[in-house]
C-alpha cells in the first residue's frame, strides 16, 4: 500500500544507504559477523514471516491482515517458541513499545496482557544492570515502535519513516547490552521480517524442511489451529482464515485461490499438487550477529532463515537429552548458523560499538504512511 506522498514510480527500490547515512550499522557489520545468505522464511508479507519466526509455520495463513488474531492469540497445533520455553522453564520476555510481536500468539488487549510482555524501558534497565532491576531472561525479543498509535514515535524503519530513527533505536538497545553486565554471555541478532518489496538479485532457495511441501501438513489458505477444536482442525477451519473485518477481500483463502485458481473449486479439499506451497524461502534480508562470540568481520555464506534463530535457541536452551526440541520440520532442518561464532575464545569481547543519534532533520513525511496492517 502506498504511503502518503509516495508515487507508483518511486525509485528507492534499488537505492541504498551509505556509511554517511547509517554509520552505526556499517560499523557493526564491519566489526562483528553478518550473513549474506539469510532469507525471510516465506515469499510473503509481515505476518507470515513473523509467524515463522515465532512458530516455525504460518499454519496456512498468507496475508498480513491476519496480524490481528482472535482473542487470546492464535493457537498453532504445533505451538510456538514461547510454549517450548515455558514448558522447559526457560525464562523469556518480549519487550515492546506500542505492541509486542508475540501478541499474535498470547494475550495482549483489554482482557489481559501476558506477563512476558514488558515495555522497552524495562529491558534497558535490566540490560544495564540497574540496581533493583531483574536480570535479563535467557531469551529476549525486542521490538521497535510499529507506528500503530501514530507515526510520531515510529522507529521500525518501515517507509516512509526516516530510517535513522530505527538506526538510533537499535543503537540504544545494542549499547545497553554492550555496556552492561550480561554482555559477556550474550548474542544479539538484528534482522528484518521481510524485504519490503526492495530489489535483490539473489534467488531464494528451497526451504529446509526434509523435502516436504510444508512444515506441518497445512497448505496455503487451508488454515488449521486449536482455536475451536475439532472444527478448527479441519482444512480452512482455523481462525481468521476466510474472513477479515478490516479487509474482507484480503484473506488467506482469497490469496490462496488467487495463487492457485484450481483451489477455487474445492478450497478445503485436497490441495492441488501443481500449486505453490510453503517449500521455498522468501527474499533475502540482512542479519547481523553482535556478540563477544562473533567472529570479527566475518560473513557467513551458509543458508539461514528466521527458523535458524529458533533452531539455535532450541539447541542452546532446549536440549535435555542431546536432541533439540522443535516445533515443525522447518526449524528441525534449519541451520543454526553457529559458523558465525567462536564460543571458545570470545574474539569480540572487547570490541567497542558506536552510538547513533536520532536524525538531525527527520525526513518522515507529515502525516506519515497510509494505514497498513
**Low-pLDDT stretches:** 368-373
Strand content: 5-15%
Shape type = globular
Q: Quaternary state, please?
A: single chain
What's the total count of β strands?
A: 11
Structural class, judged by helices and strands?
alpha/beta
| Ends distance | 10 Å
Series of H and E elements: HEEHHEEEEHEHEHEEEHH
Helix content: 10-25%
Rounded radius of gyration (Å)? 20 Å
Structural notes for this entry:
- With 373 residues, this protein is an alpha/beta fold.
- The protein has helices at residues 23-31, 46-55, 81-87, 120-128, 163-178, 252-259, 306-317, 329-333; strands at residues 33-35, 38-39, 92-96, 108-109, 112-113, 117-119, 139-142, 188-191, 287-290, 298-300, 304-305.
- The strands form four sheets. A four-stranded mixed beta sheet has the order 8-9-1-10, with helices on one face. Strands 6-3-7 form a three-stranded parallel beta sheet.
- A hairpin with a 2-residue loop joins β4 (108-109) and β5 (112-113).
- The longest helix is centred in the middle third of the chain and has 16 residues, at 163-178.
- The termini are close together.
Amino acid at each position: 500500500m502506498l504511503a502518503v506522498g509516495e508515487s507508483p514510480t518511486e525509485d528507492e527500490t534499488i537505492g541504498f544507504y551509505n556509511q554517511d547515512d547509517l554509520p552505526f550499522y556499517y560499523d557493526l557489520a564491519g566489526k562483528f559477523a553478518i550473513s549474506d545468505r539469510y532469507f525471510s522464511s516465506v515469499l510473503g508479507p509481515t505476518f507470515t514471516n513473523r509467524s515463522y519466526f515465532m512458530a516455525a509455520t504460518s499454519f496456512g495463513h498468507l496475508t498480513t491482515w491476519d496480524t490481528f488474531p482472535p482473542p487470546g492469540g492464535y493457537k498453532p497445533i504445533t505451538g510456538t517458541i514461547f510454549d517450548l520455553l515455558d514448558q522447559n522453564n526457560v525464562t523469556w520476555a518480549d519487550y515492546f513499545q506500542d505492541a509486542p510481536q508475540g501478541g499474535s500468539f498470547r494475550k495482549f488487549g483489554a482482557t489481559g496482557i501476558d506477563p512476558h510482555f514488558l515495555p522497552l524501558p524495562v529491558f534497558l534497565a535490566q540490560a544495564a544492570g540497574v540496581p533493583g532491576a531483574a536480570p535479563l531472561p535467557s531469551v529476549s525479543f525486542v521490538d521497535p515502535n510499529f507506528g500503530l498509535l501514530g507515526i510520531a514515535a515510529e522507529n521500525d524503519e518501515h517507509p516512509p519513516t526516516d530510517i535513522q530513527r530505527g538506526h538510533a533505536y537499535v543503537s540504544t538497545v545494542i549499547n545497553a547490552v554492550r555496556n552492561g553486565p550480561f554482555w559477556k554471555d550474550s548474542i544479539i541478532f538484528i534482522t528484518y521480517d521481510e524485504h519490503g518489496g526492495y530489489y535483490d538479485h539473489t534467488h531464494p532457495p528451497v526451504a529446509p524442511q526434509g523435502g516436504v511441501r510444508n512444515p506441518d501438513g497445512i497448505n496455503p489458505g487451508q488454515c488449521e489451529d486449536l482455536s475451536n477444536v475439532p472444527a478448527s482442525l479441519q482444512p480452512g477451519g482455523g481462525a481468521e482464515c476466510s474472513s477479515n473485518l478490516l479487509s474482507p477481500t484480503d484473506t488467506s483463502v482469497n490469496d490462496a485461490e488467487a495463487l492457485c485458481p484450481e483451489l477455487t473449486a474445492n478450497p478445503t479439499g485436497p490441495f492441488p499438487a501443481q500449486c505453490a506451497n510453503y517449500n521455498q524461502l522468501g527474499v533475502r534480508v540482512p542479519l547481523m550477529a553482535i556478540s563477544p562470540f562473533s567472529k570479527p568481520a566475518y560473513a557467513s555464506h551458509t543458508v539461514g532463515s528466521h527458523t535458524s534463530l529458533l533452531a539455535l535457541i532450541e539447541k542452546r536452551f532446549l536440549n535435555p537429552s542431546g536432541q533439540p526440541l522443535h516445533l515443525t520440520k522447518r526449524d528441525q532442518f534449519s541451520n543454526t548458523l553457529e559458523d558465525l561464532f567462536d564460543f571458545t575464545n570470545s574474539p569480540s569481547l572487547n570490541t567497542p560499538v558506536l552510538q547513533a543519534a536520532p536524525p538531525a532533520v527527520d525526513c518522515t513525511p507529515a502525516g506519515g504512511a497510509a494505514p497498513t496492517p
